[in-house]
Amino acid sequence: MATAVETCYRHPSRETGVSCSNCGRPICPDCMTPTPVGMRCPECSKQTTQVRTLRSLNSTTANVTIGLIVVNALLFLASGRFGIGSGGGTTQLFFNLGLFGPAVADGELWRLVSSGFLHSGLLHVGFNMYLLYTLGQMLEPELGPRRFALLYVTALIAGSAGALAFEPEALTVGASGAVFGLMGAAFVELRSRGVDPFQTFIGPLILLNLVISFVIPNISIGGHVGGLAGGGIAALVLIALERRRLPSWTAYPALVALSLAFGAAALAFAGAAS
């Protein structure tokens, strides 16, 4: 039995397996516009641009994202780590709030979250905040501020668990685990909509950052991989709830429970190394 081959609605001579996530029309690579909810055709992408232009006038679109960036920036200023790289010694903030396995095992559980708001240099904070802004602008309008905030914290704690699993006695700081979690969530969200993440910037972005994680020294591989997995799992939970047509509020206890599970894993990793 022959299989019908779809062709681009604007270029009938070009075969394609991708359709617009809004109207369903088949589109070729030249007609694809990546959006947070998948590939769009030129007409639908224009409509999306108009909507986002109107939304951009409303400061509530990504308030959580902006708030997270502000908190990270303020703590970076408070730390006094103004060098380009990660040199310059360890500040008291790092000792008090950074992720450190023995301290977590002693009950200082706040470090699982507080460590994600500290950075070791301008490049560190700048790169993480740029990615947080880019990914937050994609995900927060889709998820809503509360679900986005919970997903962010869930990924952050998962990143802390990963860091403690790999290097429990290293003093670790940075929002990278949470940012990787946003990448993982975006990847899963695109896949759930039938969009190949590698046809958007998300797939290559994840690959590039994973390569950097393994190639450049003094980077928390466990934190990055843990955050990536945690964000992806959180997105799978949200998608499962949506497909079962459960009330939207069920996402909150589900993500809290997932955060607690990652926190318990982090505590176990910290305790095992003590």
List keywords for this structure.
Rhomboid-like fold; 11 helices; Peptidase_S54_rhomboid_dom; 2 domains; elongated; two-stranded antiparallel ribbon; transmembrane; 61% helix; membrane; 274 residues; mainly alpha
Q: Can you put this structure into words, describing what you see?
A:
This protein is mostly helical. The protein has two domains: 1-58, no CATH class; 61-273, Rhomboid-like fold (Up-down Bundle). Helix content is 61%, strand content 2%. The protein has eleven helices and two strands. The chain has helices at residues 42-56, 63-79, 92-97, 101-105, 111-114, 122-143, 145-166, 176-192, 202-215, 221-243, 251-273; strands at residues 33-35, 38-40. A two-stranded antiparallel ribbon has the order 1-2. A hairpin with a 2-residue loop joins strand 1 and strand 2 (38-40). Helix 6 (122-143) runs parallel beside helix 8 (176-192) and helix 8 runs parallel beside helix 10 (221-243). The longest helix has 23 residues, at 221-243. The chain is elongated and about 65 Å long. The N and C termini lie far apart (63 Å). 41% of the residues are buried. Residues 107-239 form the Peptidase S54 rhomboid domain. Keywords: Hydrolase, Membrane, Transmembrane, Transmembrane helix. One of its GO terms (molecular function) is serine-type endopeptidase activity. The chain crosses the membrane at residues 62-84, 117-136, 148-166, 172-190, 197-216, 222-241, 253-273. This is Peptidase S54 rhomboid domain-containing protein.
